[in-house]
Write a structure and sequence with these properties.
Blueprint lengths: L16 H23 L6 E3 L2 H13 L4 E8 L14 E13 L2 E6 L1 E4 L2 E4 L1 E2 L3 E3 L22 E3 L5 E3 L1
Antiparallel strand pairs: 1-8, 2-3, 3-4, 3-7, 5-6, 9-10
């Protein structure tokens, strides 16, 4: 009997609360404050999707031979009219990908599917970004302390300090 060994494509790992706090705090201090100042309002810090829509996107990606998803950092244009409160703020776009062996190793190519006017990329966006669409924090119960992940003190120079 012939056995075919399948290579794993896994590249990520589960991480600790400490790791999450560190990378979020670093982002807030080294990128978010400057982004917010540049666009003249608080930039988004999170993008939320329901498990249902993530499962649907993954199922659609799998059914179109995707074996991965890349998360692209992006920003809505200043003249974004679909949701004007999102204009200028950052977001993420999920793009279905397929791995392909290349000269310099394993690479990923974007997946395209048939569209009305020809091939279109298989991608997902328009999640709930916060700010501006931040849900009110629930009252903490026990270990539930919504919103404290990555809390950071940001020095805004002459403009004071900011806790985010």
């Amino acid at each position: 009997m012939l056995t075919i060994e399948k290579k794993t494509l896994k590249v990520g790992k589960y991480v600790s609360t400490e790791h999450v706090n560190t990378v979020i705090r670093t982002y807030k201090q080294e990128r978010w404050a400057q982004n917010s100042e540049r666009i003249g309002k608080e930039d988004s810090l999170t993008v939320w999707y329901s498990i249902e829509e993530l499962e649907d996107f993954l199922a659609t990606a799998k059914s179109n031979s995707a074996d991965g998803v890349k998360f692209c950092f992006a920003a809505y244009p200043e003249n974004y009219t679909e949701k004007p409160e999102y204009a200028g703020r950052q977001t993420i776009v999920m793009v279905a990908t397929r791995s392909k062996e290349q000269e310099n190793g394993l690479g990923q190519r974007d997946v395209y599917i048939p569209g009305e006017n020809g091939p279109k990329i298989l991608a997902y966006n328009a999640g709930r970004i916060c700010p501006p669409a931040c849900p009110p924090p629930p009252k903490p119960t026990g270990a539930d302390t919504w919103g404290d992940i990555g809390t950071a003190l940001v020095d805004k120079g002459e403009n004071g300090m900011l806790i985010i």
